[in-house]
Every structure is written in C-alpha cells, then in structure tokens.
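Researcher: Sequence of Phosphoserine phosphatase RsbU follows. Predict its structure.
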Amino acid sequence: MSQPQMLKPSLELVTSSGRRTYEIAGADFHVGRLANLDLFLDNPHVSRPHARIQRREDGSYEIVDLRSQNGTHLNGKKIVPYEPRRLRDGDHIRIVPFDLYFRHPGPIIQEPKDDHTTVLRSLADLSSERLVTRSSHPAAAFRAVLEVVRSLSGGGDLGEVLSRAVDGLMRVFPQAERGFIVLAKDDGSVPLAAFRNKQADSSVPTLSRTIRARVLRDGQAVLIKDIAIEGDGEGSLQSTIRSAICVPLQSHDGRRIGMVQLDRLAEHDDFQESDLDLLAALGVPIGVAVENDQLLKERASWTAAREIQRALLPQARPAIPGYTFWECYRPAEDVGGDLYDYIPVEGDAEAAGEGRDAPVAEPPGPGRWAVTLGDVAGKGMPAALIMAGISPEVRHLVRAGVPVDDALSRVNRHFYDHGVQGRFVTLLIGTIAPDRHDLTLAVAGHPHALLRRSDGTYEDLAAAGAGPPLGVFPEPVYRAQAFTLERGDVVVFYSDGVVDAMDHANERFGTERLESALIASPPGVAAVGESILAAVRDHFAGRSQFDDITIVCFGRD
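Model: Prediction complete. Tokens:
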C-alpha cells in the first residue's frame, strides 16, 4: 500500500523539452530570474522578482505581477501589476517565453443522467455523546475520538490540521481507500480542504450532487453505495464508488460548514451502519476545529479593522487659541460606520476654486480648521470599510482648501460612481475661521448641527442648502452657510445613533430630549458634551447600544 497522497496545487512548466511540475507548498510561491526563488526561470526577458502566487484565506490562490518588465499574462490577458488575479485549475500563465499551467483540481461534483447512488441509511441525530454511547463497541469508539482529537492538535494552518484529521480517519477506518474534507462557502462553492488516497493514482475526489444536498443542505449523515463516476467519454463510466460514508461538519449553532467523505472503490469490506455512527461522532471535533479557525480569522479581521479605524481618528484636538474641543466616539460593535475628524486647512480656498462654476464659500484665513462627522448606513465591518474609503478623500479635499460645499459634491461624485448599491453616507463638514470667529457648514443628509448660545438658548444650524446623503444622486446641489460664533457658544455635531437610542419600551431618545439636555447643561464645551452623553446613557440604561454614537462639541471660550 502506498503512502497517502494529498492533492496540492502546483505549476506545470511546459517547454520544448517536456513538462515539469513544481509543487506550491507554502502560502507564497515566487517566480523570477533569481536562483533562490521557488521557480527559477533563466531568461533575460524575465524580471528578477517577476510574479508571486499567493494563497488566500479561503484556500484558493491568486497571482500577482511584481511590476515585471515584460509583464505577466493570464489566459492571454496581461494583468495589472500588484492587482491580484484569482487562479483556477488549468489557467494558462505566460511569462515570456515560458508557458505555465496552474493545477489545483478540486472535488468533482457530478449529477449523472442515471443516479446510481443508493442511500442505505440516513442519520439525523448527530449528537456526539449519543453516537458514541450507542456504539456496539463504545471503548473502541472513544479511542477513535481521541485519535482524531489528537490529530487536530499540533498547530499549523487549517489545511494542515484537516490533513492530519483525514490521516486519523484513515487509521480509524482502515477499509477507506480515499478520504476528503470540503468546506462550504457562502457563495455555494465547496473548495477541497484536505484529501488522502491510499492508491498510487492521483484521482480527484468525487462528490455526488445528490449526496452533497443531503449532507450540506439537509444536515444528514449518510451511508451509501454505488456512486457512479463519469469518465471522459459520452456516457462512459470510469469507475464506481462501491461504498461511502458522508457526514456534515457543523458549527455550534447548527450551520453546515463542510463535510467529510470516506469511500472505497473495491468490492467487499463495505462500510457499516456502526461506521456511519462513528464518523458522525468524529465529525463533531473536526467541525469545532473548522469553526474555531473561522472565528480566529474573523477576530483577526475585526482587530485589524479596529486598528485601522483608530488610526483614521484624530490623534489630537486642534490647538486654536480661545477654542475648546470635546468628542465621544462609541461604536455599537468593535468597529463602526461613524467617523469624525479634525483637519487643518492648509490650502488657498480661492486657488482651489479656480475653474469652478460654484462660488468660493470660504476665503483664506490663518489657522483654519475643519470638523467633520460622517455616518454610513448600517454598522459593523461593512460600514467601517466604506467610511475608511471615504475619509481619506474628504481629508485630502478639505486640507487642500476646497470649499466645504464643493468638497461634498466631489466626494459624492466619486462615491456614486464607485459606491456599494444600497449604501449611502451622511456627512457634515464645518470650517472654523478663528480670525473672524465664524463657522461655515455644508450638510449631506446628516443631522443638523446644534448651537448652544452663552445665554443657554439654542439654535438649529440647518444649512439652507443642505443636500441629500452621499451616493444617492449623481449631481446633487450642496450649499454652504456661515454662522458667527460668540464667546461661550458651543456647537454640537452628532450622529443619528444619539437620537435613535432606544429604551426598554422601544422609545427613541429623539431630538426633544437632545435639545433638553443641551439647554439644561452647564456652560462650557466639555460640560455640554458630557450632559448629552449622560442623558443618552440614562435613556438606554441596561439595554445594548443599538447604533454607533458619536458626539463632537467645540466652541469659543
């Protein structure tokens, strides 16, 4: 009996002298004219580092051209440097003058014209404890569970862990000739995660559509016989899987996240019902390993997103003599769709407005600063990613001195052309001119700023030309409006998470409570901000925060 073989990706180099295969063993595979690379191509037309093949988190692969001199072609089309292109089995890679073929066969999913598959037994109860205890040999079953659990330890990426798991299964079920694990993706694909074959051939695992539906869709473990494998010819049969057992891999909440299949082509020594019980029990710790890997990757993504978002937030408040700033940022999840910023205005507004039909809203002045507050529809990672894309553009335009109304128009145009369907962004931009003590506002669908006067009264700074949110219309009109700031005045920017905060009776905090908190607050920028925040907290006390909450206050001392 030969050693078990794992189906690994490879590059096949085709030359006039023949073919040679290079296994892609790690997460990165480099190609070029350097002798120490994974694939050394000795030709002056090949760049030293020419291209890289890299593994994605889902186990698939992509190719990246490393700004090579003569380019990299994928299936006849030149790829853009540093823009990854996904690779599929059989893709032709041309690195002049070499021809390479990417090999990464996944499981063959078939639906024969005549379904020869016979389901001997379907198992719906996948409780690991019950499956083991009702085994005719419970001691042996527990030893098998320990065998597979041990195989799941030892570290490595998910592919390595699952390969060890299949090795363990092959030892537990010696009659199995082949074993594989596929993972279920959100797009309906089932990429191959691990494969073992005791035979010397390199056959690709076969997954019947019928069995796939029973296992992944219905969550059943099945014992089957006579799965017909179609050959290359019309109506021909290459072979028949005589016996197989298949079980789903499930998350803690019952989602099907993959499946395991063990099969044999030879007659006799078929799988029995007790084997199905045992494999179903062994699938439980394997499913835990898959889910844990997904959670770790998701946690890493959230951590990275949180760090990126923190980096986008201002690291310090503006140092404007006679002005004070205060802010509160509380996302409903680890990352949020709100974002505020303090931006020094360094450009010349008149120069920035040359060639535009719109009037210049802000003449240049010393020490000007802009305050922005934006909110993406939704919350969590998708909203954070959109805001992370918009924020740098807003910062660039405002810093360059582009008037606030024109800045909104430009950002809207870009977001409308490249935005995500069903997503929109509200944005409020205000520029402070400390030499004149005025505030110039422009609004894109965002809640209006509020102004608490030094005498305790308040005003709604509703800009006359407030326009719709970004991304809704291609060419909306935004207009700026200026307001004078007196000593003791405090301006409040806030996101809709403030007024939408719900109490236990599902009653919104609302604008009336916000205005009451504003009026009842002691004077001072920080006092106003803390008063509003305390009122919101009291309103939804004991209930989870529903939406991102951001408050920015500033004003004259």
